[in-house]
Amino acid sequence: MLSLTYLNEAVRFIKEGIINCLVTAPVSKKAINLNNIRFYGHTEFLARSFGIRNFVMMFISKILRVSLVTRHIPLRKICNILKKESIYATVFLTYEALKNYFKIEYPKIAICGLNPHASENELIGREEKEIIIPAINQLKRKLAIDDLICGPFSADTVFYRALKKEFDIVVCMYHDQGLI
Questions:
Q1: What is the mean pLDDT of the chain?
Q2: How does residue 35 score in pLDDT terms, banded at 50, 70 and 90?
Q3: What CA–CA distances, in Å, run from 110 to 6, 35, 93, 95, 131?
Q4: Burial class (CB in 10 A: 0-12, 13-18, 19+), 23
């Protein structure tokens, strides 16, 4: 439970201008939740603490960037929660972050499918056709870019392409797809 106390103090320090960044470490979500406090992860906690409604969990290393459409959700619930609007919002915020914070003038974004092999033309699911592709098409129209937002790709191949610098970021549909 002390970890939550430390996080709350860090948020207070940021709000008061005492510090200007925060590095997090693993916490026991179970221990925090045993105290009747809903805690799913740092991302949701920080967004709530600062009153931010539209946010993205993004991971950054020297060689790879990854954003997540959904975060701390049981896998069996992903299909019911995944919506065109959430994909659109995640990719749009990711695009804006790449332009504004990373100074990438024309960021190239790879979008993962949900199903194995990105559904193999609906052989393994319809989410790509019914949800992901319409979101991609809407983004291409909104941003007036056609070849910078690509997908849906199978997660088992897209990371190799991203490591080869074909894409500036990979947007994944769920937590472990991106964090693996």
A1: 94
A2: confident
A3: 36, 40, 14, 11, 16
A4: exposed
